[in-house]
């Protein structure tokens, strides 16, 4: 298993392309501007797409998902708790909604990337997993051809935030953490659907018990590993 990284221009969101030995691939978190790079990669490598996964429903992680779903003929998959966000990913951002704050950071990043907010179209093929509602819903093993992924519900940043544990053939999985865990920090909880108590529980009961040698690829910023975060991340220290 190989994990390739494409960085979207809006908020430098990480898009990961998981490539199995047989050429099957899964795209994770294709933010605004990532789609063209992903398409070129699929063609150049002769890959067979299986799905588009998103770690959560915020626009900087989902913008190119509908178009890639259509062009690659695969479903968009995400936790059921965030499925409603695909109808209007900006409307669920509260104060960051660029339609309400045209001079704000997201609006500026979208303009710089040439993204027209009004052009959003919800994906036609959506396959939610897990269950909506309060409380953590546990693990779901996703059947994605040659790509082996466990989706682990990790609410707090949003209701349906998810860690993807990717089997790369190493002793421990690689963790795609979205906006739950960053190097030295965590995702914000003050936007609609965020929850301080849920995030603390996620850090304590989900993140802190991951294998310490697991590599972590966050939704933004540098890669890290669980051992480093357990030793140095102040938010994990407070939650444990």
From TrEMBL:
Coiled coil: none annotated. Its cofactor is Zn(2+). Residues 13-220 form the Metallo-beta-lactamase domain. The keyword Magnesium does not apply. CDD domains: metallo-hydrolase-like_MBL-fold. This is MBL fold metallo-hydrolase. Keywords: Hydrolase, Metal-binding, Zinc. The keyword ATP-binding does not apply. Pfam families: Lactamase_B. The lineage of its organism: Bacteria, Bacillati, Actinomycetota, Actinomycetes, Micrococcales.
